[in-house]
Amino acid sequence: MYELAVLAIVVVALMAATTVVAGLVGRWLLRIEVALMVVAAAVAFFAMLFVGAEVAMRYGFDAPIPGHLELAELLMPIIVFLGLSYTQATHGHVGMDLVLDMMPPRARLRATIATLLVSIFVCSVLAWFSAKNAWQLWLYDDVTMSPPYYKTWPTGASVALGYALTALRMYVQVLHLWNPERFPANEPESAGFHAVE
Protein backbone atom coordinates (compact mmCIF):
# COMPACT_ATOMS: atom_id res chain seq x y z
CA MET A 1 0.00 0.00 0.00
CA TYR A 2 2.90 2.32 0.79
CA GLU A 3 4.30 1.80 -2.70
CA LEU A 4 0.98 2.76 -4.29
CA ALA A 5 0.76 5.91 -2.15
CA VAL A 6 4.27 6.95 -3.20
CA LEU A 7 3.42 6.17 -6.82
CA ALA A 8 0.28 8.34 -6.60
CA ILE A 9 2.37 11.25 -5.25
CA VAL A 10 4.94 10.80 -8.01
CA VAL A 11 2.23 10.68 -10.68
CA VAL A 12 0.61 13.87 -9.38
CA ALA A 13 4.02 15.60 -9.31
CA LEU A 14 4.73 14.46 -12.87
CA MET A 15 1.32 15.69 -13.96
CA ALA A 16 2.06 19.11 -12.45
CA ALA A 17 5.43 19.24 -14.20
CA THR A 18 3.85 18.15 -17.47
CA THR A 19 1.26 20.93 -17.19
CA VAL A 20 4.05 23.53 -17.17
CA VAL A 21 5.61 22.25 -20.40
CA ALA A 22 2.53 20.61 -21.94
CA GLY A 23 3.05 22.03 -25.43
CA LEU A 24 6.58 20.68 -25.66
CA VAL A 25 5.63 17.35 -24.10
CA GLY A 26 2.70 16.94 -26.48
CA ARG A 27 4.81 17.59 -29.58
CA TRP A 28 7.56 15.19 -28.51
CA LEU A 29 5.04 12.60 -27.37
CA LEU A 30 3.43 12.56 -30.81
CA ARG A 31 6.82 12.05 -32.46
CA ILE A 32 7.66 9.21 -30.09
CA GLU A 33 4.25 7.60 -30.64
CA VAL A 34 4.64 7.69 -34.40
CA ALA A 35 8.17 6.25 -34.18
CA LEU A 36 7.02 3.44 -31.89
CA MET A 37 4.08 2.74 -34.18
CA VAL A 38 6.52 2.31 -37.06
CA VAL A 39 8.61 -0.05 -34.92
CA ALA A 40 5.47 -2.00 -33.94
CA ALA A 41 4.49 -2.29 -37.60
CA ALA A 42 7.99 -3.51 -38.49
CA VAL A 43 7.87 -6.09 -35.69
CA ALA A 44 4.43 -7.23 -36.90
CA PHE A 45 5.78 -7.57 -40.44
CA PHE A 46 8.78 -9.55 -39.15
CA ALA A 47 6.45 -11.78 -37.10
CA MET A 48 4.37 -12.45 -40.20
CA LEU A 49 7.46 -13.40 -42.22
CA PHE A 50 8.85 -15.46 -39.35
CA VAL A 51 5.64 -17.46 -38.86
CA GLY A 52 5.37 -17.95 -42.63
CA ALA A 53 8.96 -19.18 -42.78
CA GLU A 54 8.32 -21.53 -39.86
CA VAL A 55 5.28 -23.03 -41.59
CA ALA A 56 7.26 -23.45 -44.82
CA MET A 57 10.17 -25.06 -42.98
CA ARG A 58 7.91 -27.34 -40.94
CA TYR A 59 5.67 -28.60 -43.73
CA GLY A 60 7.90 -28.09 -46.77
CA PHE A 61 11.21 -29.35 -45.39
CA ASP A 62 10.19 -31.17 -42.18
CA ALA A 63 12.61 -28.90 -40.27
CA PRO A 64 10.75 -26.56 -37.88
CA ILE A 65 12.55 -23.47 -36.65
CA PRO A 66 13.63 -23.95 -33.02
CA GLY A 67 11.92 -21.63 -30.54
CA HIS A 68 9.34 -20.40 -33.02
CA LEU A 69 6.45 -20.45 -30.52
CA GLU A 70 8.42 -18.63 -27.84
CA LEU A 71 9.57 -15.89 -30.23
CA ALA A 72 6.05 -15.40 -31.59
CA GLU A 73 4.72 -15.11 -28.02
CA LEU A 74 7.41 -12.58 -27.12
CA LEU A 75 6.71 -10.45 -30.19
CA MET A 76 2.95 -10.11 -29.63
CA PRO A 77 3.12 -7.85 -26.53
CA ILE A 78 5.77 -5.72 -28.23
CA ILE A 79 3.45 -5.15 -31.19
CA VAL A 80 0.50 -4.31 -28.95
CA PHE A 81 2.15 -2.12 -26.32
CA LEU A 82 4.38 -0.07 -28.61
CA GLY A 83 1.24 1.02 -30.45
CA LEU A 84 -0.94 1.54 -27.36
CA SER A 85 -0.29 5.25 -26.87
CA TYR A 86 -0.67 6.05 -30.57
CA THR A 87 -4.00 4.25 -30.57
CA GLN A 88 -5.06 6.39 -27.60
CA ALA A 89 -3.97 9.51 -29.49
CA THR A 90 -6.12 8.55 -32.47
CA HIS A 91 -9.02 7.44 -30.24
CA GLY A 92 -8.83 4.01 -31.80
CA HIS A 93 -9.62 2.02 -28.65
CA VAL A 94 -13.02 0.42 -28.42
CA GLY A 95 -15.26 2.42 -26.13
CA MET A 96 -18.71 2.06 -24.65
CA ASP A 97 -20.19 5.54 -25.03
CA LEU A 98 -23.92 4.83 -24.99
CA VAL A 99 -24.34 6.61 -21.63
CA LEU A 100 -21.98 9.42 -22.68
CA ASP A 101 -24.02 10.04 -25.81
CA MET A 102 -27.14 10.59 -23.71
CA MET A 103 -25.45 13.18 -21.46
CA PRO A 104 -25.53 16.92 -22.03
CA PRO A 105 -22.25 18.28 -23.46
CA ARG A 106 -20.94 19.71 -20.16
CA ALA A 107 -21.60 16.48 -18.24
CA ARG A 108 -20.08 14.48 -21.09
CA LEU A 109 -16.91 16.58 -20.91
CA ARG A 110 -16.65 16.11 -17.13
CA ALA A 111 -17.27 12.37 -17.38
CA THR A 112 -14.60 12.04 -20.07
CA ILE A 113 -12.06 13.95 -17.99
CA ALA A 114 -12.89 11.88 -14.89
CA THR A 115 -12.55 8.65 -16.86
CA LEU A 116 -9.21 9.77 -18.26
CA LEU A 117 -7.91 10.70 -14.80
CA VAL A 118 -8.83 7.30 -13.38
CA SER A 119 -7.26 5.64 -16.42
CA ILE A 120 -4.05 7.64 -15.92
CA PHE A 121 -3.63 6.22 -12.44
CA VAL A 122 -4.46 2.68 -13.57
CA CYS A 123 -1.96 2.89 -16.44
CA SER A 124 0.64 4.40 -14.09
CA VAL A 125 0.30 1.50 -11.66
CA LEU A 126 0.54 -1.00 -14.52
CA ALA A 127 3.56 0.83 -15.95
CA TRP A 128 5.34 0.86 -12.58
CA PHE A 129 4.85 -2.82 -11.82
CA SER A 130 5.63 -3.80 -15.43
CA ALA A 131 8.87 -1.81 -15.21
CA LYS A 132 9.77 -3.56 -11.96
CA ASN A 133 9.10 -6.91 -13.62
CA ALA A 134 11.17 -6.00 -16.69
CA TRP A 135 14.03 -4.90 -14.40
CA GLN A 136 13.92 -8.25 -12.58
CA LEU A 137 13.93 -10.09 -15.90
CA TRP A 138 17.00 -8.06 -16.89
CA LEU A 139 18.80 -8.73 -13.58
CA TYR A 140 18.07 -12.46 -13.69
CA ASP A 141 19.03 -12.60 -17.38
CA ASP A 142 15.76 -14.44 -17.90
CA VAL A 143 15.37 -16.42 -21.12
CA THR A 144 12.75 -18.69 -22.66
CA MET A 145 12.65 -22.33 -21.59
CA SER A 146 13.75 -23.84 -24.89
CA PRO A 147 16.58 -23.12 -27.34
CA PRO A 148 17.65 -20.71 -28.71
CA TYR A 149 16.81 -19.07 -25.33
CA TYR A 150 15.42 -15.66 -26.26
CA LYS A 151 15.73 -12.83 -23.73
CA THR A 152 12.39 -11.96 -22.12
CA TRP A 153 13.12 -8.47 -20.73
CA PRO A 154 12.39 -6.57 -24.00
CA THR A 155 8.80 -7.78 -23.87
CA GLY A 156 8.44 -6.64 -20.25
CA ALA A 157 10.02 -3.29 -21.07
CA SER A 158 7.63 -2.74 -23.98
CA VAL A 159 4.66 -3.29 -21.65
CA ALA A 160 6.00 -0.71 -19.17
CA LEU A 161 6.80 1.78 -21.93
CA GLY A 162 3.38 1.36 -23.55
CA TYR A 163 1.50 1.97 -20.31
CA ALA A 164 3.69 4.93 -19.32
CA LEU A 165 3.27 6.68 -22.67
CA THR A 166 -0.46 5.97 -22.66
CA ALA A 167 -0.80 7.58 -19.23
CA LEU A 168 1.12 10.61 -20.49
CA ARG A 169 -1.04 10.78 -23.63
CA MET A 170 -4.21 10.65 -21.53
CA TYR A 171 -2.96 13.52 -19.38
CA VAL A 172 -2.23 15.62 -22.47
CA GLN A 173 -5.80 14.86 -23.56
CA VAL A 174 -7.16 15.92 -20.14
CA LEU A 175 -5.31 19.23 -20.41
CA HIS A 176 -6.68 19.80 -23.92
CA LEU A 177 -10.23 19.05 -22.82
CA TRP A 178 -9.86 21.31 -19.79
CA ASN A 179 -8.48 24.30 -21.75
CA PRO A 180 -8.23 23.79 -25.54
CA GLU A 181 -6.85 27.29 -26.21
CA ARG A 182 -3.93 26.91 -23.83
CA PHE A 183 -3.17 23.22 -24.39
CA PRO A 184 -3.14 22.03 -28.01
CA ALA A 185 -4.26 18.48 -28.73
CA ASN A 186 -0.98 17.40 -30.36
CA GLU A 187 -2.71 14.44 -31.95
CA PRO A 188 -2.66 12.98 -35.44
CA GLU A 189 -4.89 14.89 -37.84
CA SER A 190 -7.58 12.20 -37.94
CA ALA A 191 -8.00 12.19 -34.15
CA GLY A 192 -10.75 13.84 -32.17
CA PHE A 193 -12.77 13.13 -29.06
CA HIS A 194 -16.05 11.57 -30.08
CA ALA A 195 -17.28 11.88 -26.51
CA VAL A 196 -17.19 15.68 -26.50
CA GLU A 197 -18.26 16.51 -30.04
Q: Keyphrases for this structure?
A:
197 residues, mainly alpha, disordered C terminus
What does this entry look like structurally?
The protein starts with a helix and ends in a 19-residue tail after the last helix. The chain contains seven helices and no strands. The protein has 197 residues and is mainly alpha-helical. The model is unreliable at 193-197 (pLDDT under 50). It has one domain.
Distance between the termini: 39 Å
Q: What is the mean predicted local confidence, pLDDT?
A: 89
Instruction: Report the order of strands and helices.
Output: HHHHHHH
- Computed over alpha carbons, the radius of gyration is 20 Å
What is the helix content? over 70%
Number of domains: 1
Outline type? elongated
Helix count equals: 7
Derived from helix and strand composition plus strand pairing, the structural class reads mainly alpha
Write the layout of secondary structure elements.
Blueprint: H1 2-20, H2 22-61, H3 68-82, H4 84-89, H5 98-102, H6 105-140, H7 153-178
Helix pairs in contact: 1-6, 2-3, 2-7, 3-7, 6-7
